[in-house]
Amino acid sequence: MADVVSKKKRSQIMAAIKSKGNKATEIKLAGIFRQNIIVGWRRNFDLFGNPDFAFPKHRLAVFVDGCFWHGCPKHFRKPSDNRKYWHEKILRNQKRDQLVTKTLQSAGWRVLRIWEHSLRTSALVAQRIKSRLSADG
Ligand SMILES: [Zn+2]
Q1: Distance (Å) from CA 108 to ligand 1 centroid
Q2: Cα of 70 to ligand 1 centre, how many Å?
Q3: Three-state SS for 70?
Q4: What number is the average pLDDT over the span 119-130?
Q5: Centre of ligand 1 from the C-alpha of residue 107, in Å
Q6: How far is CA 122 from the centre of its chain?
Q7: Which of 6, 33, 36, 104 is positioned for an S-S bond with 126, CB 3.0–4.6 A?
Q8: Residue 9: how many CB atoms within 10 A of its CB?
Q9: Which pLDDT belongs to residue 127?
């Protein structure tokens, strides 16, 4: 896709995002797609912000946000050590999430962010994705 931010900025953001490491949640969501016969998704689709999944035809990008790394309002508890460090780190992650969402939206993509914890209610997640896909155009 066309560069929507400068190359330098893009590579900085990408480097930061690479460290998120949420393979287990990605695999879980892929399983939910299969169970619910949700098709048309791609993993590792080359798109700004590295969404966990993309539905290119529907221009829908799906991110699974880890409860800890992305500061889930229900589950995030600041570690007792280095509180300042963690506070700033999570805040940076959240700012980056917002930037990625805005950037994709301005490039004509829709963005769906799913909390890691909501993968436990897989039927609900499947429903959300399906309704986004059918609300197309
Ligand atoms: Zn959570």
Answers
A1: 28
A2: 9
A3: coil
A4: 95
A5: 28
A6: 16
A7: 36
A8: 12
A9: 96
Q: Residue 137 Cα, ligand 1 centroid: separation in angstroms?
A: 31
| Distance from Cα 39 to the centre of ligand 1, integer Å | 26
* 41 Cβ neighbours under 8 A, 6+ residues apart: 30, 33, 53, 54, 55, 62
What is the Cα Rg of the chain in Å?
Answer: 15
CA 47 / ligand 1 centre spacing (Å): 25
For ligand 1, the distance from its centroid to the CA atom of residue 1, given in whole angstroms, is 31
Statement: residue 41 has pLDDT above 50:
yes
pTM of the model: 0.80
Contact in structure between 22 and 66 (CB atoms under 8 Å): yes
Please answer whether residues 71 and 79 qualify as being in contact, where contact means their C-beta atoms are separated by less than 8 angstroms: no
pLDDT (0 to 100) of residue 135: 78
**Which residues sit with Cβ closer than 5 angstroms to ligand 1, an ion?**
67, 72, 74-75, 115, 117
